Amino acid sequence: MRNMVELMSRVGKKPISIPEGVEIKTEGCRVFIKGPKGEIAKDFQPEISIEAKEGKIFVLPDKKILNEKKIPGREAKRIKSLWGMTRMMLENMVKGVVSEFEKKLEIEGVGLKAEVAGQEISLSVGYSKPVKIEIPQNLKVSVQKNVITISGIEKDLVGQFASILRKVKPAEPYKGKGFKYEGEIIRRKVGKKVVTAGGGK
């Protein structure tokens, strides 16, 4: 069997510090993390062992499962990747219940606007009617001037909802009109030149 050191992930082997006010509980492959901003529960793969002790979360490949069979190179690579990904997900869960994640969308262009009413956001993007999208219960969405702010304790959900809104009217490459992420650079294209009759001289 491959040496455990060969499977170690540079990311996975680093313990995660548990901030004050954060609680972690495991039930089989399911992990619950609770903090000032809320609680997240996620299921993880059985190949990875997750243990909370001494104010830290330790993530390691499960020795019992690894010892059941000789691990081929491809499987070892998968477990190494899974190890690092599990640690990253747990770190994001801890960060989320402490300070939340946030994504901002900038609205560019005359006539484009967004409004939030209850658990729904209405996007006016030039169609005959506004595009209305329901906001997931565990997300907060606000609009100030030309900026839409999406925040929540789950990083993936925040990013996913921001992507859904952006796809309604992505910033186009000629005038930049549409929705874009804060700080996103849109590659601009030059519009087609109109050639008049007898022109070119």
Describe the structure.
This protein has four helices and 13 strands. The chain is an alpha+beta fold and 201 residues long. The chain folds into two domains: 4-99, Outer Surface Protein A, domain 3; 101-181, Outer Surface Protein A, domain 3, CATH 3.90.930.12. It has a four-stranded antiparallel β-sheet with strand order 11-12-7-13. Strands 1-6-5 form a three-stranded antiparallel β-sheet. A three-stranded antiparallel β-sheet has the order 2-3-4, with helices on one face. The termini are far apart. Mean pLDDT is 87; it is low at 1-7.
CATH fold category name of the largest domain? Outer Surface Protein A, domain 3
Q: Please, how many domains? A: 2
Order of helices and strands: HEEEEEEHHEEEEEEHE
Write out the strand line-up for the largest beta sheet, numbering strands in chain order: 11-12-7-13
Secondary structure category: alpha+beta
For the structure shown, list the relevant keywords.
201 residues, 4 helices, Outer Surface Protein A, domain 3, 2 domains, 34% strand, 24% helix, elongated
Give a concise summary.
The chain is an alpha+beta fold. The protein has helices spanning 4-7, 63-66, 73-99, 155-168, and strands spanning 16-17, 23-27, 30-35, 38-43, 48-53, 56-61, 101-108, 113-117, 120-124, 131-134, 139-144, 147-152, 178-181.
